[in-house]
Amino acid sequence: MKKYKRHLVTSALPYANGPVHIGHLAGVYVPSDIYVRYLRLKGEDVISICGSDEHGVPITIKARKEGVTPQQVVDRYHNIIKNAFAGLGISFDIYSRTTSPTHRQTASDFFLKLYNDGEFIEQTTEQYFDPEAQQFLADRYITGTCPKCGAEGAYGDQCEKCGSTLSATELINPKSTISGATPVLKETKHWFLPLDKHEPFLKEWILEGHKDWKSNVYGQCKSWLDGGLLPRAVSRDLDWGIPVPVAGAEGKVLYVWFDAPIGYISATKDLTPDWEKYWKDEQTKMVHFIGKDNIVFHCIVFPAMLRAHGGYILPENVPANEFLNLENDKISTSRNWAVWLHEYLEEFPGKQDVLRYVLCANAPETKDNDFTWRDFQARNNSELVAIYGNFINRALVLTSKYFDNKVPLATAPTDYDREVLAELPKIKTEIERNIETYKFREALKEVMNIARLGNKYLADTEPWKVYKTDPERTAAILNVSLQIAANMAIACEPFMPFTAAKLLKMLNKTGFNWEEIGSASLLEAGHELGVAELLFEKIEDSVVEAQLAKLEATKQANEAANAELAPAKDTVQFDDYGKMDIRVAKVLEAERVPKTQKLLKLIIDTGLDRRTIVSGIAEYYSPEDMVGRQILVLANLAPRVIKGIESQGMILMAADPTGRLTLAVADAPVGSTIG
């Protein structure tokens, strides 16, 4: 394996039209941070680069919908994302943004270099144009009937109902979402990067030179290269973005896919005046952390851009992850089906490392995986609390109890003691091997094996029993246990930095470096420890149930938003309506009808009389909910016997598109008539 002088680690720029969710974290940011923290602990020269991707059509659509400017949208989400990353301990050396002056200049200069070197081709194509708004339309500004499934409201690039990828010209009855006008095709000129020109190089560089890449990354690249590459537009007609810096390009901006990866370069420029040594020196190892939807851009398109420009190094690895689902359903920003990082940090204070742990332990490294709240709870309670936390607590509490909170002297270590300590360098080697091949799940298992080793050692040696007859042997046992605990503090830092800091405080140490893992003398005899406290706490069922209820509410809201309203009924005459006696009534008593799931028996006061009504609302209202409420009733409906009870009227309810019922109410005295 080649030895590099320095490391440049980039993480995919999150799109600033919404917050960051657990899918982003599991796919990109947690693995990236583990890798960077590991390199720092080893004393390597490494910088971690990220920032907000702030241009493109979705930003303009959100701004138009909210009645604000695109800049206001990206300002809001840039701050939410940046603060959330910091809250989770994602340790970027810089978190920049593509609306920065440095980026604007860098992207413009990059385009001009390729333009002046003749690396682009110009093509005139036909694109939809809104004759009323007098502007070209991006695909997302065009809707129509899907030619594949017939669904209305399909976008010019995709039908969200059937999932088909579309071209705007395929839509039936296309309409502009800006003005509602029917768009017309109009010629427009754009610049294209001829990827086909770079295809021979890319085939050799990837298919022959990087067979060590993850199978999902290598396979997707091979599929694209085998299918043949085509020129790709680097500009588009839009008023939000970096203007194309050549004459005759008024109203055109750099396409966001071209603009965004240059953001890694501009962010590095803002970080250090020595930026070129990270981007242009072959002794630098560049690694891109991304999700699978960005593989083509980082493995094929961006390398082609860098090679066309000249002078830049290419990525050594692109360890892309697959997708993380949520409760067996695809995470979706538009459907609000996600666990948002900023909300998690508010709702689970002090539990940053629990999320980091679970997302790493369940990472979608080679295939899509699923996050569930029950698994989150189980991993916290049965692994972090019962294994890691339990070992540390026992080792420190026993030391405090028997040796005045000072590391005892091990005067006569046994063969078993030496055998246990000899496992630590072996575990260190396995952690390193897995991190350096981007297998972070396996690396985390090895970290937890240190805690398992410690737990087993304490269970086997039983110092709480031995102390009664052999305090000297107990001293050796607890010395070994504390050395294991100190090793754990180092090994877990890349994965759980908050826990590592807390454990170091309990050990009364400021820190160690990576190479010290495996040492049996990290804590000298007589060293006074800090105050022992619980590293983790159990997560109760009620906490998980609250999160599941939150998701269920989201699901119901989505169903209601997507459900079709009931069609209008046939026209009636006023005399027909006038026959109905609708009155305000008050519920005096309520009880469930025995042997039924949906029925309530209500005693009501109509102002004229007291009467009984049987109503199928028990699914939505309990008897306690109903007593004392004012309701609307159809008082002159013919009586009907239901489950042996004569029901004298009907309660008026509102039904939403999903069929959910809500009481219809009126702010009027009991007995008032509605008409």
UniProtKB/TrEMBL annotation:
<dbReference type="Pfam" id="PF09334">
    <property type="entry name" value="tRNA-synt_1g"/>
</dbReference>
<dbReference type="InterPro" id="IPR012340">
    <property type="entry name" value="NA-bd_OB-fold"/>
</dbReference>
<keyword id="KW-0694">RNA-binding</keyword>
<feature type="binding site">
    <location>
        <position position="162"/>
    </location>
    <ligand>
        <name>Zn(2+)</name>
    </ligand>
</feature>
<dbReference type="GO" id="GO:0006431">
    <property type="term" value="P:methionyl-tRNA aminoacylation"/>
</dbReference>
<dbReference type="Pfam" id="PF01588">
    <property type="entry name" value="tRNA_bind"/>
</dbReference>
<keyword id="KW-0479">Metal-binding</keyword>
<keyword id="KW-0862">Zinc</keyword>
<comment type="function">
    <text>Is required not only for elongation of protein synthesis but also for the initiation of all mRNA translation through initiator tRNA(fMet) aminoacylation.</text>
</comment>
<dbReference type="GO" id="GO:0005524">
    <property type="term" value="F:ATP binding"/>
</dbReference>
<dbReference type="GO" id="GO:0004825">
    <property type="term" value="F:methionine-tRNA ligase activity"/>
</dbReference>
<comment type="subunit">
    <text>Homodimer.</text>
</comment>
<keyword id="KW-0648">Protein biosynthesis</keyword>
<feature type="domain" description="TRNA-binding">
    <location>
        <begin position="576"/>
        <end position="675"/>
    </location>
</feature>
<dbReference type="InterPro" id="IPR004495">
    <property type="entry name" value="Met-tRNA-synth_bsu_C"/>
</dbReference>
<dbReference type="Pfam" id="PF19303">
    <property type="entry name" value="Anticodon_3"/>
</dbReference>
<protein>
    <recommendedName>
        <fullName>Methionine--tRNA ligase</fullName>
        <ecNumber>6.1.1.10</ecNumber>
    </recommendedName>
</protein>
<dbReference type="InterPro" id="IPR033911">
    <property type="entry name" value="MetRS_core"/>
</dbReference>
<dbReference type="GO" id="GO:0000049">
    <property type="term" value="F:tRNA binding"/>
</dbReference>
<dbReference type="InterPro" id="IPR041872">
    <property type="entry name" value="Anticodon_Met"/>
</dbReference>
<dbReference type="InterPro" id="IPR014758">
    <property type="entry name" value="Met-tRNA_synth"/>
</dbReference>
<dbReference type="InterPro" id="IPR023458">
    <property type="entry name" value="Met-tRNA_ligase_1"/>
</dbReference>
<dbReference type="InterPro" id="IPR002547">
    <property type="entry name" value="tRNA-bd_dom"/>
</dbReference>
<dbReference type="GO" id="GO:0046872">
    <property type="term" value="F:metal ion binding"/>
</dbReference>
<feature type="binding site">
    <location>
        <position position="333"/>
    </location>
    <ligand>
        <name>ATP</name>
    </ligand>
</feature>
<keyword id="KW-0547">Nucleotide-binding</keyword>
<dbReference type="InterPro" id="IPR014729">
    <property type="entry name" value="Rossmann-like_a/b/a_fold"/>
</dbReference>
<feature type="binding site">
    <location>
        <position position="159"/>
    </location>
    <ligand>
        <name>Zn(2+)</name>
    </ligand>
</feature>
<feature type="short sequence motif" description="'KMSKS' region">
    <location>
        <begin position="330"/>
        <end position="334"/>
    </location>
</feature>
<keyword id="KW-0436">Ligase</keyword>
<keyword id="KW-0820">tRNA-binding</keyword>
<feature type="binding site">
    <location>
        <position position="149"/>
    </location>
    <ligand>
        <name>Zn(2+)</name>
    </ligand>
</feature>
<dbReference type="InterPro" id="IPR009080">
    <property type="entry name" value="tRNAsynth_Ia_anticodon-bd"/>
</dbReference>
<dbReference type="InterPro" id="IPR001412">
    <property type="entry name" value="aa-tRNA-synth_I_CS"/>
</dbReference>
<feature type="short sequence motif" description="'HIGH' region">
    <location>
        <begin position="14"/>
        <end position="24"/>
    </location>
</feature>
<feature type="binding site">
    <location>
        <position position="146"/>
    </location>
    <ligand>
        <name>Zn(2+)</name>
    </ligand>
</feature>
<dbReference type="GO" id="GO:0005829">
    <property type="term" value="C:cytosol"/>
</dbReference>
<comment type="similarity">
    <text>Belongs to the class-I aminoacyl-tRNA synthetase family. MetG type 1 subfamily.</text>
</comment>
<keyword id="KW-0030">Aminoacyl-tRNA synthetase</keyword>
<dbReference type="InterPro" id="IPR015413">
    <property type="entry name" value="Methionyl/Leucyl_tRNA_Synth"/>
</dbReference>
<dbReference type="InterPro" id="IPR029038">
    <property type="entry name" value="MetRS_Zn"/>
</dbReference>
<keyword id="KW-0067">ATP-binding</keyword>
